[in-house]
Amino acid sequence: MRVAMIGTGYVGLVSGACFSHFGHDVICVDKDEAKVAFLNEGGIPIYEPGLDALVAENVSAGRLAFTTDLKAAVASADAVFIAVGTPSRRGDGYADLTYVYAATEEIAEALSGYTVVVTKSTVPVGTGTEVENILKRVNPGGDFDVASNPEFLREGSAIEDFKRPDRVVVGAESERAKTLMRELYRPLYINETPVMFTTRATSELIKYAANAFLATKITFINEMADICEKVGADVQAVSRGIGLDKRIGAKFLHAGPGYGGSCFPKDTLALVKIASDAGVPTKIIEAVVDINNARKKQMAQKIIDAAGGSVKGKTIAILGLTFKPGTDDMRDSPSLDIVPILQQNGATIRAYDPQGMKEAQKDLKDILMCDGAWHAMEGADLVAILTEWNEFRALDMNKLKSFLKTPVMVDLRNIYSPAEMATNGIEYHSIGRVLVEG
Predict the structure, then answer these.
(1) What pLDDT shows up at residue 90?
(2) 361-383 pLDDT, tens per residue?
(3) Taking the model in full, what pTM does it have?
(4) Distance between CA 255 and CA 222 in Å, rounded?
(5) Does residue 219 carry a pLDDT above 80?
(6) Which whole-number Å values give the CA distances from 161 to 18, 156, 204, 322, in the listed order?
(7) Which of 24, 49, 195, 296 has its CA 20 to 30 A from that of 222?
(8) What is the CATH number of domain 208-289?
(9) Is there a shared CATH topology between the 208-289 domain and the 295-429 domain?
(10) Among the options 18, 28, 228, 263, which is catalytic?
(11) What angle do CA 61, 64, 67 make, to 5 degrees?
């Protein structure tokens, strides 16, 4: 099949590359001429493990190409995916659909023959209907259907998620559109992947409901961690104890500094606005948003407390800046709240992240970006782990003590064992576990 992917951001690039790996002919479209030129030269504008090799393989096979010519790409396509950004709108948190509707206008003018126009971007309920209205207005004689096909990709595991998903959700109103979407995802039927067909409105809401639920699980275990610290319990044991219950499940029950990234923050805000417009209260989701925002600031105070109640004139080594390992994504990362608060309280910051420093420099100012973990810790008063990159999981504690002025670690990801740290003479502060001093 012939696929046009409008947008070469995270979702568009990964989805386009994976569809081409299924054997479809894919053209990815972007207005950014420099970005398209970079892609055509073999460059990858985002960090996602395995994406560079996947793109190279399918470009070489002639199944994947990049262009700025939307008209030509759409005219030859059986399916056109809209995978442009839907950032949170200033003021009310609603998804900004400016790019979605602008792309729809251009698509409408370029349609040729029967085409299914698919919203791949995360969009509020009713967006598919408005896309259909725009297509009919601009191209009243066009032969098309509109479908919703939300993505469920985890940054750092996106290729595996696309090739072996838990499910594929398709919102389509006509049998003709359903037939085309089945053919598009036919390779997944071999793996017996559930392909769920719903109405467009249901499909659009499923994505928001899924992300809001996962954000709620994260927020719940973070609150349990706070209780654990007060009563002397271990949040990791609590997490395992409830996660073994199949009704609950173990995933997303890891205490930490709060959720971030491209999906959870904006999708929870958008769902609150969707519900508000519909006249439906969403007290749980609103609480999740408020608690998560406060949590990030709370983690900055945890670091300050570990420094003896003040970081004025002190140097803090920060290991990890991205919202999670395996990505260079800084969107709504806890570090964007934690680092400025430390600076406002008089701290000097030395930071290292394996992939995120270039992106971090856009928002975090007046910090020293270091060449590695040891460079960051050199001469620092304490070290704080904000992101659980693998290279931070087995640090040499004797070397750590020789690099730091004082052997103090704040581990916001619970990488290490309190008992192990006590044995190594490290004053160790973690999340939801009893403080053990060396």
Answers:
(1) 76
(2) 999 999 999 999 999 999 999 99
(3) 0.92
(4) 5
(5) yes
(6) 10, 10, 19, 20
(7) 49
(8) 1.10.1040.10
(9) no
(10) 263
(11) 135
